[in-house]
Design goal:
VC0802-like; 8-stranded mixed beta sheet; 14 helices; 38% helix; binds adenosine-5'-diphosphate; binds aspartic acid; binds magnesium ion
Length: 447
């Protein structure tokens, strides 16, 4: 069997849904398990409505709910009843004046609950033998709302139990991505972009032959095509390279997607639902040799640098441990670290616990914070063997100020920090330099 996942743009309206149903219809002999995201933009809309309601701006929240209802009910009229409950929830939020992570997950879950019902309905009307499986009854997670982790053994057995009989009987199974629930039945989400992760979990649970991620670009590209319109498609890339790129900002793949696939050695494809004849990108354990030094450039914006300076650090052991324990206590991961005699600089992506972290760090030394920086990351297996990447990279962006540098611990990435306003220019210049000539065995033009 195979897992086929459609992202938001691949189910954004009736035409996109029909294209996606057609893609599934052409693959029936491979027994697809289909995962769908919310309709493009719906998750943002739902969360925005919740925020307005909690701030007391119920009118604005209801206007968004009206627009969402119109869009969904146009595709499946019976879905209107879900909006009665959604509106009640928004009113309750306005009364409480608080939008907790738990409630955010509940509100956001409407996106995938509704899209999966819409897609199943459309498939049936197109004559496909499809059944709906509710992700909240199969994907069992912990209760870290907003970024819950699946409990894998339970999730696997529930997915197998819910899907296997249908797949064996030749039926299509459709499930919403991104959402799950705790053991006691409270709705959770796997984090933004998490439908890719749902697809990988389902693929591993059901021992899929492959996992197909259908999106709005031709595959993993040499840079985000929104930043570099002439970016090339990477035909083949290793699990390691792909997960590094995803972690450092290549939004086309959720960073955790690769893990379940690696464990079971299931190839993952990234494909374009607007160009279904394309061959996409194949992500596998071993990628073929490549003559280019790197495969792609990723970028994460909104990075914060925290610098702690202290003369106590001089020759003192235990200082770094104390420092990292602060981040550990607040479940905040650090991407990059640079140390000098008397200071340590670290970069953070997740600043949700920044204030309490800063309070604790002040006990260790003087603390400085600078936000609005961007982490640019060059990724490729060849970086393992080739010296001089820093010289070449910095040569092509000599006019841009570099704030921090790290040759990644994984040795297949080279990353550095620039001011956010310089990020686009830096990526474009790096791309022009590193992909002036490309190995045609590995790269091809996007359509
Ligand atoms: P979906 O809704 O299908 O999950 P996403 O919006 O999450 O789609 O991801 C697709 C987007 O990822 C593309 O439109 C593209 O702008 C962005 N992207 C960023 N980096 C890359 C990259 N290296 N290759 C391809 N797309 C990328
Ligand atoms: N709908 C969710 C989001 O927008 C999950 C996903 O698209 O993968 O983040
Ligand atoms: Mg996505």
């Amino acid at each position: 069997m195979i897992v086929i996942k459609f992202g938001g743009t691949s189910v954004e309206d009736a035409a996109a849904i029909d294209r996606s149903c057609y893609i599934v219809g052409e693959r029936l002999s491979r027994r697809p398990f289909v995962i769908v995201s919310a309709l493009g933009g719906a998750t943002n809309g739902l969360l925005e409505a919740g925020s307005y309601a909690a701030r007391g701006e119920l009118g604005k929240a209801m206007t968004i709910a009206d627009r969402l209802e119109y869009r969904h009910a146009e595709l499946l009229p019976s879905i209107a009843e879900h909006f009665v409950r959604l509106r009640e929830l928004l009113k309750a939020l306005a009364a409480i004046g608080e939008f907790s992570p738990r409630t955010q997950d509940l509100i956001a879950s409407y996106g995938e609950v509704l899209s999966s019902l819409i897609v199943v309905d459309r498939m049936k009307r197109l004559g496909l033998d499809a059944v709906h499986v509710d992700a909240r009854q199969c994907v069992v997670t912990d209760d870290r709302f907003g970024r819950a982790s699946p409990i894998l053994d339970l999730t696997t057995s529930r997915l197998v139990e819910a899907a296997r009989p249908h797949l064996d009987a030749g039926r299509l199974v459709v499930m919403g991505g991104y959402i799950g629930s705790t053991l006691s039945g409270t709705t959770t989400t796997l984090g933004r972009g998490g439908s890719d992760y749902s697809a990988a979990i389902a693929g591993a649970a059901l021992n899929a032959d492959e996992i197909q991620i259908w999106t709005d670009v031709d595959g993993m590209m040499t840079a985000d095509p929104r930043i570099v319109p002439g970016a090339w498609k990477v035909k083949e890339i290793s699990f390691d390279e792909a997960s590094e790129l995803a972690y450092f900002g290549a939004k086309v793949l959720h960073p955790l997607t690769v893990l379940p696939a690696v464990e079971k050695n299931i190839p993952v494809y990234i494909l374009n639902s607007k160009n279904p004849k394309g061959t996409g990108t194949r992500i596998t354990r071993e990628a073929r040799p490549c003559r280019n030094l790197i495969k792609s450039i990723a970028c994460k914006r909104g990075i914060t640098i925290v610098t702690v300076s202290s003369s106590r650090m001089l020759m003192a052991h235990g200082f770094l441990r104390a420092l990292f324990e602060v981040f550990d206590r607040h479940h905040t991961s650090v991407d990059m670290v640079a140390t000098s005699e008397v200071s340590v600089s670290l970069t953070l992506d997740d600043v949700s616990s920044l204030q309490p972290i800063l309070e604790e760090l002040k006990q260790l030394g003087d603390v400085e914070v600078s936000s609005k920086t961007a982490l640019i990351c060059l990724v490729g297996n060849n970086l393992k063997y080739t010296p001089g990447v820093a010289r070449r990279a910095f040569g092509s962006i000599a006019d841009i100020n570099i704030l921090m540098v790290s040759h990644g611990a994984s040795n297949i990435n080279f990353s550095f920090l620039v001011d956010e306003k310089d990020a686009t220019a830096a990526i474009q210049k790096l791309h022009a330099d590193f992909f002036r000539e490309v190995d045609s065995e590995v790269f091809e033009p996007a359509v």
